[in-house]
Write a structure and sequence with these properties.
148 residues; mainly beta; Metal Binding Protein, Guanine Nucleotide Exchange Factor, Chain A; six-stranded antiparallel sheet; 9 strands; 9% helix; globular; disordered N terminus; zinc; oxidoreductase; metal-binding; peptide-methionine (R)-S-oxide reductase activity; Met_Sox_Rdtase_MsrB_dom
Length: 148
C-alpha cells in the first residue's frame, strides 16, 4: 500500500514488526474471529465488542502479541460502536497504512510489534478530544489488563 502525503502526519512510524510468525502459527493461536480481524484486516460488528462500553482502568494490549497499545485514560465514548481512543500509548506502538479499501480513503492502524490490524484512525471531525482524533479499534484486537 502507498503512504499518502495528504495524511503525512500519520506515516512517521515505519516500524518493522518484531514478532514474526507464519500464518499457520497465527491461525493456531487465534480464534477464527481474532484471525479474521487481526490477520485479514476484518472488522467486528458495531456495538458488540467486549470493550465498547468498558470504563475499567488499565492498559489495552494487542491480542495477538501482547504489546501495550492504549491506556484507558485515552479512551472516550464516541458512540461509534467500537472502542475509541484519542491517542496510542506511544507513537512507536502503532503503525499506519493508507487504506483505500471499500471505496474509501482511510488510515489503518496496525500493531507495530506484530503488524496485526487494529482498526482505523480518523481526525478533524470535532471529537472534542485533546488530539481531535478517534482511533476506532476492534475489541477483538485487544486484551484489557486492569490496573492494580
Amino acid at each position: 500500500m502507498t503512504e499518502s502525503s495528504s495524511n503525512s502526519s500519520y506515516f512517521q512510524n515505519s516500524a518493522v514488526p518484531t514478532v514474526v510468525k507464519t500464518e499457520e502459527q497465527w491461525w493456531a493461536e487465534l480464534s477464527p474471529e481474532e484471525y479474521r480481524v487481526l490477520r485479514q484486516a476484518g472488522t467486528e460488528r458495531a456495538f458488540v465488542g467486549e470493550y465498547t462500553d468498558t470504563h475499567t482502568e488499565g492498559v489495552y494490549q494487542c491480542r495477538a502479541c501482547g504489546a501495550e497499545l492504549f491506556r484507558s485514560n485515552e479512551k472516550f465514548d464516541s458512540h461509534c460502536g467500537w472502542p475509541s481512543f484519542f491517542a496510542p500509548l506511544a507513537e512507536d506502538k502503532v503503525r499506519y497504512i493508507h487504506d483505500r479499501s471499500l471505496g474509501m480513503e482511510r488510515v489503518e492502524v496496525r500493531c507495530a510489534a506484530c503488524d496485526s490490524h487494529l482498526g482505523h484512525v480518523f481526525e478533524g471531525e470535532g471529537y472534542g478530544t485533546p488530539t481531535d482524533k478517534r482511533y476506532c479499534i476492534n475489541s477483538v484486537s485487544m486484551t484489557l489488563v486492569p490496573a492494580e
